[in-house]
Amino acid sequence: MKIRQDQVSALEQVRMPDFENHMVEHLKEFTPLHSKSLGELGIRRFIQEGMDRAKRVGFNSRGPVQFYIEACVLLGIDFDTDPQYPDLGNILRDTAVRDEIKRADMAYAWLTN
Q1: In sequence order, what are the residues at sequence separation of 6 or more whose Cβ sits closer than 8 angstroms to the Cβ of residue 81?
Q2: What are the b/e assignments for 6-22, b being 16+ CB within 10 Å?
Q3: What's the pLDDT tens digit per position in 48-91?
Q4: How far is CA 47 from the centre of its chain?
Q5: Rg (CA), the chain
Q6: Chain segment 34-46, per-residue pLDDT in tens
Q7: What whole-number distance in Å separates Cα of residue 7 and Cα of residue 21?
Q8: Residue 78: closest CA among 57, 105, 62
Q9: How far is 97 from 17, CA to CA, in rounded Å?
């Protein structure tokens, strides 16, 4: 059996509610105090907002979207337009790099250096 790249991409796309449920559990471990203070409904709204914002920079696959939401937790929901992080925003919006995983990796490298 041979799986085409478009099929792989379709499998990697973020699907609701599975991804949202995964992220709720992930954020409870990743950031327990934020999750507790927001409560179940609040954390779901935060995740949904993060997913919408991730789409705006072309992130549709699970890994990049999860990274984007984690960055929202760490740096603030508007991190990609925050003047404190102009380089990070530029990386996320770089249309010359079409591969969302590569852009997410570049953003991660910027964030961890």
Answers
A1: 89
A2: eeeeeebebeeeebeee
A3: 999 999 999 999 999 999 999 999 999 999 999 999 999 999 99
A4: 9
A5: 14
A6: 999 999 999 999 9
A7: 23
A8: 57
A9: 29
Residue 17's pLDDT is 73
Is the pLDDT confidence value at 4 over 90? no
What is the value of pTM for the model shown? 0.84
Distance CA 6, CA 3 (A): 8
Q: Are 102 and 59 in contact (CB under 8 A)?
A: no
DSSP 61: B
3-state helix, strand, coil in the chain (%, to 5): 75, 0, 25
Residue 98 phi, psi dihedral angles, 5° rounding: -80, -30
Q: List strand residue ranges (DSSP E) for 1-113, in order.
A: none
> What confidence score (pLDDT) does residue 8 get?
55
Calpha distance 17→9 (Å, rounded): 18
